[in-house]
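Appendix B. One record, verbatim.
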Amino acid sequence: MRITILAQGRKLDRTMAGLCDDYVRRSHSLIAFELVAGCTARSQWERAHAFGGPIVVLDERGAPWSSPELAGRLGGWRDAGCRHVACLIGGADGFDDTERARADELFSLSRLTLPHRLAQLLLCEQLYRAGTILVGHPYHHG
């Protein structure tokens, strides 16, 4: 299974991109994912639908999954034969009601409002953590 994070807004600066890339690299053998920053709202949705798998919209109104719950969702999709999952991070104004209704899942990283750069980094770390949970690696101590 492959996961693609599609993030609206500007591309990450070198420092943040490096931090995200580190989690992408470390996750390669656990759970494959990529980060595509700088998407427009239209291209984000077009790409997500083209993948043909679940679309997870990150939104403060979403369910606040714990790290083990995120791992469980990903493991469930993987075990069901899902080939691709798209995770969407919105623009400065987030997602509207119509966009939220198009999602298969609404997921909240935090009840706090997060800047795009931090949301991208946090999601990368959580996907890495989910991968370690799925294989029983000691990174997650919970």
